[in-house]
UniProtKB/TrEMBL annotation:
Transmembrane segments: none annotated. Residues 213-457 form the Glycoamylase-like domain. It comes from Marilutibacter maris. This is Glycoamylase-like domain-containing protein. Coiled coil: none annotated. Residues 1-22 are annotated as: Disordered. It comes from the Bacteria.
Length: 478
């Protein structure tokens, strides 16, 4: 689906319907949504709309909002996904290379020039890392946000992708590559190894490090790789086997795999690294790779939804998916004769002995898993859009989450709105959920991000130092 080249910010999502509005018409409109019958045309539509969110919600300074239209602050992880989205937009014909180059260069200049230091205010980061949330206007620390090792990692994913994509000889593309080297090289990974060998999650001025460390399988695979692959502050390779020793291998819904309940943990690192056919020692012992592990996690979540042990409304073979997302609010309500607890933002998920489910379904759970199991994820994306129409699938893609069990007016939701007969729907799009939809669909269709990152020295070096072998890494490790 071709889109006229986008000139900049503009447009806004369809305005939320006030509770008590013309819900009969709303439900009829939703049911009437017709989507392209061809999967390629449908995926074009999903990608184009999702890309438009990144392009139009991000200001000229490159500080992509954490959420939109309820814009409050910028998420550095969302910026990483945005930097990765721009090359997709160029290759799909939605923006020009010049437009993407200009936006990317402005973003990298801001992150390189933003002040660093231990002071609690007026700084964007410290020791090369950045605060989880930044003021969207000036790029300084937002409120009491923590210095985040994982969100800096996700930002770096986009920085390194930009470096790999903008390979031209002109001065601007050369500057993009130079800035990427400097931003990545400035990160002092040892700072977050305050309690070695594992890496700590967060730090705050005046308070120091939090107690949580990266252990147990999760989204930090990319962090481990980039920390080992650094040309300036690389951590000792002994970190990696210590990290994998904390995994939990278990069978869930007939799928034996390394468990992590929310699906984002099985998706984020895969946005930038093609794990097909490469194995670390842990996976080699089990005879699979991390790509297959994510496939099993995806299939287990679908099986869980079909079984639906909680008796939630709407769950089924094509309506499923639990991951971190917004929710209707922290309250209890009686649904189908059962008192149930609902949540606001929550790391929803389902795994062995770890069920976090309040009936809230998140489209990025299926969308971010398209490469792993296209035969079930693409029908899920299609079914959710067809069933709920523009209450869920709008001009900027999928709103963040919905809950079919909350379909009666008057319930005490604190975010979003209830459409009687359909359920609760969020009003916002979240950058960290939009990114996997757009980028993982692109990896499924063309492998573009994966192929670019295979050329990235930090990725190759980090994987080799972690002990990965085989597949596309064959002959590339010393």
């Amino acid at each position: 689906m071709a889109l006229t080249v986008l000139a900049g910010c503009g447009g806004s999502p369809t305005a939320p319907t006030e509770e008590g509005g013309d819900t009969a018409t709303q439900a009829a409109d939703a049911a009437a949504m017709t989507l392209p019958a061809d999967d390629d045309a449908f995926l074009d539509l999903v990608q184009e709309r999702t890309f438009r969110w990144f392009w139009e919600a991000t200001p000229e300074n490159g500080l992509t909002p954490d959420r939109w239209p309820s814009k409050t602050m910028s998420s550095i992880a969302a910026v990483g996904f945005a930097l990765s989205a721009y090359p997709v937009g160029v290759e799909r014909g939605w923006v020009t290379r010049e437009q993407a180059r200009e936006r990317t260069l402005a973003t990298l200049r801001l992150f390189w020039e933003a002040p660093q230091g231990p002071e609690p205010t007026g700084r964007a980061g410290h020791r090369g890392f950045f605060y989880h949330f930044l003021d969207a206007d000036n790029g300084h620390r937002y409120d009491n946000s923590e210095l985040s090792s994982i969100d800096t990692t996700l930002l770096l994913g986009g920085v390194l992708l930009a470096q790999a994509y903008f390979d031209g000889d002109d001065a601007d593309e050369a500057e993009i590559r130079s800035l990427a080297d400097r931003i990545y090289g400035r990160v002092d990974w040892s700072f977050f190894q305050n309690n070695p060998p594992l890496v700590t999650m967060g730090w705050r001025p005046g308070k120091g490090f939090g107690p949580a460390q990266w252990k147990g399988y999760d989204e930090s695979l990319l962090l481990q790789v980039l920390a080992l692959g650094s040309p300036t502050h690389a951590l000792d390779p002994g970190l990696y086997p210590r990290f994998t020793s904390t995994y939990e291998w278990a069978d869930f819904q007939g799928q034996p795999h390394v468990n992590f309940a929310p699906l984002f943990g099985h998706q984020y690192s895969h946005v930038w690294i093609d794990f097909r056919g490469i194995q670390d020692d842990y996976m080699a012992e089990r005879g699979i790779d991390y790509f297959e592990n994510s496939r099993r996690a995806t299939l287990s979540q679908r099986a869980y939804a079909i079984a639906n042990p909680g008796g939630w409304r709407g769950y089924g073979e094509n309506v499923w998916g639990l991951t971190a997302s917004d929710g209707p609010g922290g309250f209890t309500a009686t649904v189908d004769g059962v008192e149930r607890q609902f949540h606001s933002y929550w790391a929803r998920g389902a795994a062995h002995e770890d069920i976090r489910d309040d009936g809230t379904i998140v489209p990025t759970a299926a969308g971010g898993s398209v490469p792993f199991a296209p035969e079930v994820t693409i029908p899920a994306l299609r079914a959710m859009a067809e069933r709920y129409g523009d209450n869920l699938f709008t001009e900027y893609g999928y709103l963040d989450a919905f809950n079919p069990s909350l379909d009666e007016a008057g319930m005490a939701v604190t975010r979003g709105r209830i459409v009687p007969g359909q359920g609760w729907f969020n009003d916002d799009y979240l950058g960290i959920d939009q990114g996997p939809i757009l980028l993982m669909i692109e990896n499924h269709r063309s492998g573009m991000i994966w192929e670019l990152m295979k050329k990235s020295p930090p990725i190759v070096r980090g994987l080799c130092r972690a002990g990965y072998r085989g597949g596309w890494l064959e002959g590339r490790c010393e």
